[in-house]
Amino acid sequence: MEGLLKLSTLVIVCMLVSAPMASEAAISCGAVASNLGQCINYLTRGGFIPRGCCSGVRRLNGMARTTRDRQQACRCIQGAARALGSRLNARRAAHLPGACRVRIAYPISARTNCNKVR
């Protein structure tokens, strides 16, 4: 139940963050949250990475075809990270794409300037 509450909170925060940007990008924060939802327990508690998490990472990477898509996904990920706060393990988040064998063009970090993502 706690995981469902976290996911619901994450989806709501992402929707609020993305509302002003929704017309500018094909990827919504809801789509980002949906694809990465199965990663939350790993990112906050550790353990093994669920297969569904890596499937979501691959799906999201495939959805982010344009610069605008990648920038929006970056912003959504950062918004979700802020929502998780200190519960998020930044090292696990940074290494998640590589652990799922997905190559992305920018680092997963709170310091990433999403406007510079290409």
UniProtKB/TrEMBL annotation:
Keywords tagged on the record: Disulfide bond, Lipid-binding, Signal, Transport
Signal sequence range: 1-25
Keyword Disulfide bond in record: yes
GO molecular function: lipid binding
Pfam families: Tryp_alpha_amyl
Ranges that cross the membrane: none
Gene3D superfamilies in the record: Plant lipid-transfer and hydrophobic proteins
Domain annotation Bifunctional inhibitor/plant lipid transfer protein/seed storage helical: ranges: 29-114
Alphabetical list of InterPro entries matching this protein: Bifun_inhib/LTP/seed_sf, Bifunc_inhib/LTP/seed_store, Plant_nsLTP
Disulfide bond listed as a keyword: yes
Similarity comment: Belongs to the plant LTP family.
Function: Plant non-specific lipid-transfer proteins transfer phospholipids as well as galactolipids across membranes. May play a role in wax or cutin deposition in the cell walls of expanding epidermal cells and certain secretory tissues.
Name used for this protein in its record: Non-specific lipid-transfer protein
Lineage per the UniProt record: Eukaryota, Viridiplantae, Streptophyta, Embryophyta, Tracheophyta
